C-alpha cells in the first residue's frame, strides 16, 4: 500500500475525509482536508490540528485559532488566546511528527522543518503530547501501521 493510501486510511479512521488536490492551497472544510498531493506530511499535520482541537472547535476555520498567514486565511475568528493557539500549534506539530514516525516517513526532516532540533525539544514535545492525552492517537496509528506490515 502506498503512502498516500495509508495516510488516507489514517485520516478516515479519525472521521475525516481527504482530498488530494493538484494545487498548493489548503482549503478548509468542516469534515475534510484538502492537501497538496506532494505533501503527505502536511496531511498528518492538519489531522493533528484536528485531534488537538477541542471538539467544539473542530468545525471552525483554522480550528478557532485565528489567522493562518501561511495560507493567507486572514480575519478568521479566534476563540482561544494567542498563547493557547501557539501551544496547540506546537502540540499539533509534534503529534504529526509522531504519526509520521509510526508510518515510516522521514520524521526527522519534519523535526528540522518545524524547529524540533534536539533531544530536549523532543522531550518537551513528547511531554506536552502525553499531558494533553494525545498519545492514544499515536498508538492507533501505530496499530494500523503494524497491521499493514503483516
Describe this structure in words.
There is one protein chain. The protein has six helices and three strands. It has helices spanning 3-13, 40-52, 82-102, 107-113, 119-131, 135-149, and strands at residues 17-21, 28-29, 32-36. The chain has 150 residues and is mainly alpha-helical. The radius of gyration is 15 Å and the shape is globular. 27% of the residues are buried. β2 and β3 (32-36) form a beta hairpin. The chain has a three-stranded mixed β-sheet, with helices on one face. The protein has one domain (3-149).
Structure, briefly:
With 150 residues, this protein is mainly alpha-helical. The chain has helices at 3-13, 40-52, 82-102, 107-113, 119-131, 135-149; strands spanning 17-21, 28-29, 32-36.
Show the helix and strand layout.
Elements: H1 3-13, E1 17-21, E2 28-29, E3 32-36, H2 40-52, H3 82-102, H4 107-113, H5 119-131, H6 135-149
How many strand elements? Answer: 3
Number of domains: 1
Structural class, by secondary structure, is mainly alpha
Strand order of the largest sheet: 1-3-2
SS field, number of helical segments: 6
Give helix and strand order, one letter per element, not per position: HEEEHHHHH
Euclidean distance between termini CA atoms: 12 Å
Major sheet description: 3 strands, mixed
What's the helical proportion of residues? 40-55%
Q: Overall mean pLDDT score? A: 84
Give the percentage of residues in beta strands. Answer: 5-15%
Low-confidence stretches: none
Gyration radius, rounded: 15 Å
Global outline? globular
Amino acid at each position: 500500500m502506498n503512502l498516500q493510501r495509508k495516510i488516507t486510511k489514517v485520516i478516515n479512521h479519525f472521521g475525516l475525509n481527504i482530498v488530494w488536490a493538484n494545487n498548493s492551497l489548503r482549503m478548509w472544510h468542516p469534515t475534510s482536508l484538502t492537501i497538496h498531493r506532494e505533501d503527505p506530511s502536511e496531511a498528518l499535520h492538519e489531522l493533528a490540528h484536528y485531534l488537538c482541537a477541542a471538539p467544539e472547535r473542530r468545525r471552525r476555520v483554522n480550528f478557532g485559532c485565528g489567522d493562518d498567514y501561511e495560507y493567507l486565511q486572514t480575519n478568521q475568528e479566534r476563540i482561544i488566546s494567542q498563547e493557547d493557539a501557539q501551544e496547540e500549534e506546537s502540540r499539533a506539530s509534534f503529534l504529526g511528527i509522531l504519526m509520521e514516525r509510526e508510518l515510516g516517513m522521514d520524521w526527522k526532516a519534519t523535526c528540522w522543518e518545524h524547529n524540533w532540533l534536539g533531544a530536549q525539544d523532543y522531550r518537551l514535545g513528547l511531554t506536552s503530547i502525553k499531558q494533553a492525552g494525545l498519545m492514544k492517537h499515536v498508538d492507533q496509528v501505530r496499530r494500523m501501521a503494524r497491521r499493514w506490515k503483516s
